[in-house]
Amino acid sequence: MQTIDKKKAATLIEQAETITFLTGAGVSTASGVPDYRSLSGLYQGVEQPEYLLSHSCMIEEPEKFYSFIQTLYHPKAKPNMIHLKMAELGRIKDTWVISQNIDGLHAAAGTKHLVNFHGDLYDCYCRKCGQNVSAKTYLLSDCHDRCGGQIRPNIVLYEEGLEERAIELSIEAVAKADLVVIVGTTFQVHPFCDLIHYAANTAKILVINQTAIQLNRDAYFFKQDAASVFETIL
């Protein structure tokens, strides 16, 4: 992995014609949304966080599930420079954003081509009748007032499968890109991290991250906060 400076990272993005961004929790920390596994992350001090975010917990211990899910919401969070610049790039060139994040900030920034790989906290529905319910309503109660069914967010829980369409769109977006940019993620969660295998041999790979990641191919690496790169992009 070749370490580069901020100017080189920005130039790679500016000169690319077709870009696909693969984003993780690090993109949203500047908006006040904590990541999951760092010392200040959401999972810190929580017993069995994977269980609390599982299909089993939702069915067998709905109160415990609902209590934990509520901690994931940050309704006052706003898109930061990274979200906004990615959305802006999407208005002037062929740009896709494939995100592990479930916070809805890429959509709030106006991202044109977006795949929420693990779903969206702000897309809620009743499990009993299927009716869509606002996140605002869900945060007041997980019981649907019309039918008494359990409301849930449309996110991929542990023990649940990903949506096939999300996988298909993500693979297509990575395969056609001449630049794939990995931003703010440890890139260890499967199958999200496996998307890089679909990048063309001619595609350039740029990693913008606080820590290095493991890849099976050459890549450029800018080790710093991603916001410092995106604020310089024209």
Can you describe what's shown?
This protein has helices at 6-15, 49-52, 55-60, 62-70, 81-92, 105-108, 135-138, 164-176, 227-230, and strands spanning 2-3, 18-23, 94-99, 114-116, 119-126, 132-133, 151-155, 179-183, 204-209, 220-223. The chain is elongated and about 55 Å long. Helix 6 (105-108) links the parallel strand 3 and strand 4. The protein is α/β, with parallel strands linked by helices and 234 residues long. It has nine helices and ten strands. The model is unreliable at 37-41 (pLDDT under 50). A seven-stranded parallel beta sheet has the order 1-10-9-8-2-3-4, with helices on both faces. The protein has a three-stranded antiparallel beta sheet with strand order 6-5-7.
Short précis:
With 234 residues, the protein is α/β, with parallel strands linked by helices. The protein contains 9 helices and 10 strands.
Total E-strand runs? 10
> Cα distance, first to last residue?
26 Å
Query: Order of strands in the sheet with the most strands?
Result: 1-10-9-8-2-3-4
Number of helical segments with 4 or more residues:
9
Calculate Rg over CA atoms: 18 Å
- Which stretches of 5+ consecutive residues score pLDDT under 50? 37-41
Approximately how much helix is present in the residues? 25-40%
The biggest beta sheet is recorded as: 7 strands, parallel
Average pLDDT confidence is 93
SS-based structural class? alpha/beta
Shape descriptor: elongated
Comma- or semicolon-separated keywords:
234 residues; seven-stranded parallel beta sheet
Secondary-structure topology with pairs:
Layout: E1 2-3, H1 6-15, E2 18-23, H2 49-52, H3 55-60, H4 62-70, H5 81-92, E3 94-99, H6 105-108, E4 114-116, E5 119-126, E6 132-133, H7 135-138, E7 151-155, H8 164-176, E8 179-183, E9 204-209, E10 220-223, H9 227-230
Parallel strand pairs: 1-10, 2-3, 2-8, 3-4, 8-9, 9-10
Antiparallel strand pairs: 5-6, 5-7
